[in-house]
Each structure stands twice: as structure tokens, then as C-alpha cells.
């Protein structure tokens, strides 16, 4: 069982705790009551088919029912396509049919897809009701903290959404045991990112504990997710609505998003794409004057947790460049990039030339 | 031309002004610039076909273009059916195609339908961009102030939405000249409501100026909308997210919503339904001990502005009662009602018995 860790996302009256530990789902009823979630109004759990099949849903449902809550569940198809207005509308229908009212709570049990989708339902149902995040992927340590919720539009990802902070995040490490290996590694990509932008010591720790992390060792995972969530929480506390600082969370994402778009969303997982993107950002950093080890350490630690660091040669450089130009960070020949200046420290550079980025993309294809 | 009036909705950092006067659309460019709306990012005007055909759209477009803004327009079908997720999605598509970014502004030019719909697009596009209300109906003095924005779901009105305050409200009285008479009267219903809940003197003024109001006399309208907006703004300032006080704005709406549902949404306009509902609330008040004149004055002033005060006999009482039971204000045999205790003063009564309400519904059919 082991101890659990708690940390708080400081956002004034919207502050909330993140609990991280083994078996926390079994304490969900008690936590809900502690947080003043009323059992007079029905609760709806949203999850996806992969999670539902793993008994995590049954556990959560039964513990909440035992605690006196009226619970219904909605299971959506697994995968990014569920982050659509169509599935959103179905969930609103289910919420209405289950009688959810202004005092009701929506619980997101799943990865980032379920969290973003269910979160947007909670943000807009009756103009906003409460919601709780129960993340079941490693990547969701990122998506469940910070209050960004959204669905996709056929023309653009995450374009329809809100800022809607959860009441709490209940991170039960035992759910991660059923996660496919590739998803484990993809999630570790954002964990390492949080180290790279904020905490050099933690980057070293990730390197040393890479094997334990990939093996889903509970102590290592608990610590890594605690650190990752801490960085995210610290950044979000200082800049809830992404006016400035929050942009640093996009390390590796300018190239990463372009790779996802060009490769097609299923060939390259988000975490894999931004792993390559972070190596690119580190290469760029060195060209702009950062010490060589920014690049070597970045590449080394990402490889250690099993992530790709080389850009697949078959992806066309022109297409990658075009995809970046559609990104709003691009303006008249120069782009905005999050650039590491040292391990654990980044800056926002608004004047990176497109031709330099092209050079980097080419080099990333040669990465050893 | 005449002077214009200004009032401020006090909401801390979300405070904003309401400008009311003749010809304000002609000053839109200058106002936008004053309010820091950037001409670097494209603006999108949302309106409906009835408004578009009246030249109000052409005026607004051209004045904004003259002021240096990049402007596109989206025209939706007139009527409540446009407040749907489908039309919402189309507007997001148009916003993407027009290149709207995080610094862009959406302008709602129209009645409550356009305001609610465009407002929800603004609330959720890229997790929230700025928006400006340019109301063109009398009813919209109500809907454009307070930040409630929403679309409908086939099973429930206004169920998908947000609180999203505009940057400003620009109320150009000249647009009201093209409004059909029936819409004029329906809008006056909410004007009178604002007097009934808050300001006895203003109720007397409405009585004295009823003819000028129906004739769309600009001075009378300007004053009435200023007073109506002032009451709405005062209530909203004290309770932005409808925790308690804001409920008083629902005077007449418990019965009114039921009548709309039973009559079908096109037979009885919202303002007409709540006129009858307010007479019902006044009848109820007298039964609960308020002075007789609460009823006589309410009924008199509503008749004076040309509104129905009698419930159409063909509407079935059982169906009306059922519709109220689906309303969330109903709990185990007793209902929540906004009850006038005097002209200009209401209270929230949570224990009105359903049988008393049924009595009132029957009596409303006999109203002289
Ligand atoms: N809101 C934010 O701030 C934010 C930040 C980062 C990413 N995101 C979003 O997060 C999404 C990606 O999140 P994700 O990687 O968690 O994707 P995901 O939710 O699709 O989960 C990945 C896969 O793992 C499966 N799965 C989840 N938990 C499982 C478990 N315990 N056992 C077995 N299988 C399980 C899912 O069904 C899915 O097939 C993207 O839509 C992205 O836009 C949001
Ligand atoms: N958000 C809120 O707080 C709030 C409050 C009250 C009502 N509402 C909403 O407002 C809506 C009703 O508003 P409404 O009564 O303004 O309806 P509306 O927007 O449908 O306008 C009524 C009719 O008048 C037409 N019209 C509008 N301006 C015109 C003009 N200047 N000249 C000619 N025709 C014109 C419209 O095309 C429409 O046919 C409802 O959807 C209701 O839910 C919202
Ligand atoms: Zn990411
Ligand atoms: Zn109303």
C-alpha cells in the first residue's frame, strides 16, 4: 500500500489538492465527502472502453455507491476521436438523463482524452459544475493539472474548451499497472519535460531511475508523478490562463505538434513526438549558445526512458515546416520557441528563424 | 442623435460598460479602439438573417473596417433553433477559416439568440476570447447583461453554456426601429420585470410612458433600457454566478417557462409567457399576505405596455403543472417561487405548495 503524497495547486479560491498513491480509488468515497461533494445530487463517471474493461471503473463505482452516492457511468470509445463535439453532446444527453443538476459532480476516470472531454462537459453543463480527475495514464499527470479542458474541431485540436479547475486529482498508481508499455513511455516524456524546464536534479533522478520507471515500480512512479505534477502546478499557479509563463510547458511541442500532424496522429504518440521535439529544442539551444551538455543530457535521459530521439527519415521536411507555419507561434519568418538555456531552465525566444529550424529538422533525421 | 447614457457592470476586473443611445453603431470603431481591442487580430460579427437584412450589419461592418479592423461576418438563421450545438460548430468553423486567434473579438449583433450563441462561441473558442454585445432587441437588454451565454440541447434549454462577460455592451437605439411590434412588447415584459423586483418608481414611470415605449420613442426607450440594465447590472454585480440573489431575476419565470413549453415555443413569446407568469406570481403574493395592489398594479402596467395577462384557456392545467415539476425549482410537493412582497420588492419563497400553484393557474385563465 505505502504512503500517499499530497500537493496543492495554489489558485486562490480555486486551489485544489492532488493525491498520489497506491489504491486511492478505494478511498474515493471518503475523499468526496471530505471535499463537500454532495450525495444529494447524482454523480456521473466518464471513462473509456480500455479503462472500463480493466475493473478500474467497477472499483470506483462501487466505492462511491457504498459511500452513499448516486452514480451513473458513461463509457466512450478509446482514443483521440472521442474528443469531439458529437461525443460531448452524447455526454450531455446522458447527464440530463441521469438527472445531473447544478450541484452534481462529473468524474473523469482515464487518460488525457477522458479528462479533457469530461472536463469540458463539466465546464459547460449548466454553465459549469464540479469535476474530479482520476487519471489512469502517466501522461495525465500533465493533462489533469492546470484546468485546461477541451474537445477538438476537425480543423484544429483543442480549439473548443475552457479553463475549469477540478475539485481534486485522485491519482491511483495501481491503475497504471494495466497501461500498455508504449503508453507508459509516452507519458514519461512529459515527466522528463517537467524536469527539463524546471528542475535539473529531477532530470538526474529520472536518468538513474529510468528502469524502475519503465517497470512501473510504484515508489519510483509515485515520486516521478509527484515531481511532475509539482512543476506543472507551480507554473499554472503563476499563470492560470496562459498569458506568459505557462508557455514554457510547450518545450518540445512546436516541432512535436508538427510531427504528429505530418505522421498522422496514430503513428507517433504525443509523448514520442515531443521527445523528438525536445531533442530538437536542445540542438537549437546549443546553436544559440547554450552549453553542449544541454543537448547531450536531454537526448540521453529521453533515450534512457525508452523514447525516440531521432526524427523518422520518411517524414518530409517541407511538410513539417508547413505544419509549423500553421501553428500560431509562427510569425513572418520567425517563430516562437521554448529554448533550454541549461538543464532545468528554459526561456521563451520569439525570434528563432525558420531557416534555422529547418536545419534542426534535417539534423534530427541524422540523430544517432 | 441625442446624448447617450453609460453605466458600468461592477465585477472587479471583469467590469464593463453599457452604452445606450441613438446611432452608437456609428461610433463602434472608436469605442473598440478605446477598449483596447486590437486591430492586429481579425474580428467576427455574428448576426441573424432578420438583422442582416436591415442594414444594421452593413453599418457595423463598414464602420469597423474604416477604423482599420479586419472583419468577417457570419449570418445564422433567425430564431431559437440557431441556439444549437450544430450552429455553434459552424461558427467555430467560420472563426477558424477567418483566422481568429486568442486576441480576436467576436461581436454579437442581434437579439438574445445571437447574444447567447455568439457569446458561447467566444467563451469556448481557444478557451475564451473577447466579445462585444450589440443588442438589437428590447429583450436583449436583459440577455446582454450578466454574462450568461448558452446553447440549447434537444432535451433542455440553455443547458450548455458558460459565464463569459462581454468587453462592453453597445446599445444602439436606432436598431430597435425595425423590430416587429410583437417583439417590442415582449421585450418590454423584462423591462417591467426589472421594475417589479427592484424599483417601484420605475414601475410607475412605465405605466405613465407605456404609449411612448410602444411607439419606440427614443427618449423613453433610452431611459427604460437604462433603468432595466441598471437593475440587471446591480443584481449581477452582487451575485455573478447565481448563488442566491440572482434568482430574483426569475420573477414570473416558473409559470412562464411552463407556459412556453406547453404552448410550443412559437405560439407564446418568452416575454408574453412571463407577463402571464408575473401576474400569477402577484396573485400568489396576495394569497400569501401581500397587499392587494401588488396584484392590481402588476396586471395594470403589463396590460398598459400591451402584454397578455390572461392564461390561454386551451392550455391544459395538468400539462402546465407537469412542466413545472420538470423545472429544477420543484422539490417534493413544494416549489421555489419569486414572490413580490410589494411593488419593487420580491422575496424567494421555497415552500410554495403545488396545490396553491394549481389554483393560481386556474385563476389565471379567468383573468379579466
Ligand atoms: N489538458 C491539458 O492540459 C493536456 C495536456 C497534455 C495532453 N492533453 C491531452 O491528453 C490527451 C492524451 O492523453 P493520454 O496520453 O492519457 O491519452 P488517452 O486518454 O487516449 O490514453 C492513452 C491510451 O491508454 C488507454 N488507457 C488509459 N488508461 C489506461 C489504463 N489504466 N490501463 C489500460 N489502458 C489505459 C486509453 O484507453 C488510450 O487508449 C490528448 O488528447 C492531449 O491533447 C491535455
Ligand atoms: N443570457 C441571458 O441572460 C438571457 C436572458 C433572457 C433571455 N435570454 C435568451 O434570449 C433569447 C430571446 O431573445 P430575443 O427575444 O431578443 O430573441 P431573438 O434574438 O430571437 O430576436 C427576436 C426576433 O427579432 C428579430 N430581430 C432582432 N433584432 C431585430 C431588429 N433590430 N430588427 C428586426 N428584427 C430583429 C430576430 O431575428 C428574431 O426573429 C432566448 O434564447 C433566451 O433564452 C438570455
Ligand atoms: Zn504535451
Ligand atoms: Zn426572461
UniProtKB/TrEMBL annotation, chains A, B:
<keyword id="KW-0170">Cobalt</keyword>
<feature type="binding site">
    <location>
        <position position="270"/>
    </location>
    <ligand>
        <name>Zn(2+)</name>
    </ligand>
</feature>
<feature type="binding site">
    <location>
        <begin position="175"/>
        <end position="178"/>
    </location>
    <ligand>
        <name>NAD(+)</name>
    </ligand>
</feature>
<dbReference type="InterPro" id="IPR030963">
    <property type="entry name" value="DHQ_synth_fam"/>
</dbReference>
<keyword id="KW-0057">Aromatic amino acid biosynthesis</keyword>
<keyword id="KW-0862">Zinc</keyword>
<dbReference type="InterPro" id="IPR016037">
    <property type="entry name" value="DHQ_synth_AroB"/>
</dbReference>
<dbReference type="InterPro" id="IPR030960">
    <property type="entry name" value="DHQS/DOIS_N"/>
</dbReference>
<keyword id="KW-0963">Cytoplasm</keyword>
<comment type="similarity">
    <text>Belongs to the sugar phosphate cyclases superfamily. Dehydroquinate synthase family.</text>
</comment>
<keyword id="KW-0456">Lyase</keyword>
<dbReference type="Pfam" id="PF01761">
    <property type="entry name" value="DHQ_synthase"/>
</dbReference>
<feature type="binding site">
    <location>
        <position position="148"/>
    </location>
    <ligand>
        <name>NAD(+)</name>
    </ligand>
</feature>
<feature type="binding site">
    <location>
        <position position="190"/>
    </location>
    <ligand>
        <name>Zn(2+)</name>
    </ligand>
</feature>
<dbReference type="GO" id="GO:0003856">
    <property type="term" value="F:3-dehydroquinate synthase activity"/>
</dbReference>
<feature type="domain" description="3-dehydroquinate synthase N-terminal">
    <location>
        <begin position="75"/>
        <end position="185"/>
    </location>
</feature>
<dbReference type="InterPro" id="IPR056179">
    <property type="entry name" value="DHQS_C"/>
</dbReference>
<dbReference type="InterPro" id="IPR050071">
    <property type="entry name" value="Dehydroquinate_synthase"/>
</dbReference>
<keyword id="KW-0028">Amino-acid biosynthesis</keyword>
<feature type="binding site">
    <location>
        <position position="157"/>
    </location>
    <ligand>
        <name>NAD(+)</name>
    </ligand>
</feature>
<dbReference type="Pfam" id="PF24621">
    <property type="entry name" value="DHQS_C"/>
</dbReference>
<protein>
    <recommendedName>
        <fullName>3-dehydroquinate synthase</fullName>
        <ecNumber>4.2.3.4</ecNumber>
    </recommendedName>
</protein>
<keyword id="KW-0520">NAD</keyword>
<feature type="binding site">
    <location>
        <position position="253"/>
    </location>
    <ligand>
        <name>Zn(2+)</name>
    </ligand>
</feature>
<keyword id="KW-0547">Nucleotide-binding</keyword>
<keyword id="KW-0479">Metal-binding</keyword>
<feature type="domain" description="3-dehydroquinate synthase C-terminal">
    <location>
        <begin position="187"/>
        <end position="329"/>
    </location>
</feature>
<comment type="function">
    <text>Catalyzes the conversion of 3-deoxy-D-arabino-heptulosonate 7-phosphate (DAHP) to dehydroquinate (DHQ).</text>
</comment>
<feature type="binding site">
    <location>
        <begin position="112"/>
        <end position="116"/>
    </location>
    <ligand>
        <name>NAD(+)</name>
    </ligand>
</feature>
<feature type="binding site">
    <location>
        <begin position="136"/>
        <end position="137"/>
    </location>
    <ligand>
        <name>NAD(+)</name>
    </ligand>
</feature>
<comment type="pathway">
    <text>Metabolic intermediate biosynthesis; chorismate biosynthesis; chorismate from D-erythrose 4-phosphate and phosphoenolpyruvate: step 2/7.</text>
</comment>
